[in-house]
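[job 0412] stage=complex_fold ligand=guanine status=START
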Amino acid sequence: MTARIIDGKAIGEAIRQEVALGVEQRLAAGKTRPGLATVLVGENPASQVYVKSKQKACAEVGIESFGFELSKDARQNEVEKLVRELNADPKVNGILVQLPLPSGFDEERVLSAISIEKDVDGFHPLNIGRLAQKGRDPLFVPCTPAGVMYMLEKEIPSLEGMNAVVLGRSNIVGMPVALLLVRANATVTICHSRTRDLASVVRTADILVAAVGKPEMVRGDWVKPGAVVIDVGINHVDDATKPRGYRLVGDVCFEEVSQVAQAITPVPGGVGPLTIAMLLKNTLHAANLRD
Ligand code: GUN
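[job 0412] stage=complex_fold status=DONE, emitting structure tokens
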């Protein structure tokens, strides 16, 4: 079997167009332009790139972005004070604190300071708590997990009763994806570094979500024929044949797994574009919650 390639770029573009239309409709109705504040602490190069692409994407759909950069030597209180000021700023509908924060910061305290109505990343403990509970709904779903679910729901008419395996249990991806899959009535197994006989657990998956940050860890013979595979990993591997000296690969060995799976996301061009599209969608949602 040769897998269908899920085109994240095209799906992300369609969502961005919907958001751009939503922004136009707000403006036509005399409402405010949605605004997103990004907070970057320190100089992590990957975080700098991510924040820049988020700001650029905002501009493309008509969302205003307000960038704030603090030194890695900033105090915990300074970051929290900035967040509180942004909570009170009516031009700001969404607040994104780029993670990870430099070592020494109490991430949970910073995230808890964000007003839940502006928590477009969905990482506030209250939003995550609501995601984890039956009969409750978060105001916002974290962006990458929302993108993963969007792709799965497009691929598979109903996830009910399917065996889903999530590789990785991070706060940003693995755990919220697992919670969303449970909410979609899948039977969910979460695997991590202590899981025994990982390959045979992965082999039970009708749906596999890989988010461990280990280049090409999932091999062809780990995957059940016909599975749908979502690869969240973005790993740099040295490659002297490339102008930049490296190439990007996922957590899944694409060459092998695409021979076995029914559908698979590529890296790059799979989940990545959906993360940003969902952030834009959440920011528009935040504005619409207010007026
Ligand atoms: N770091 C990696 N992914 C994300 C994300 O979706 N949001 C934030 N704030 N930080 C991240």
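The first helix runs from residue 8 to 28.
[job 0412] exit 0
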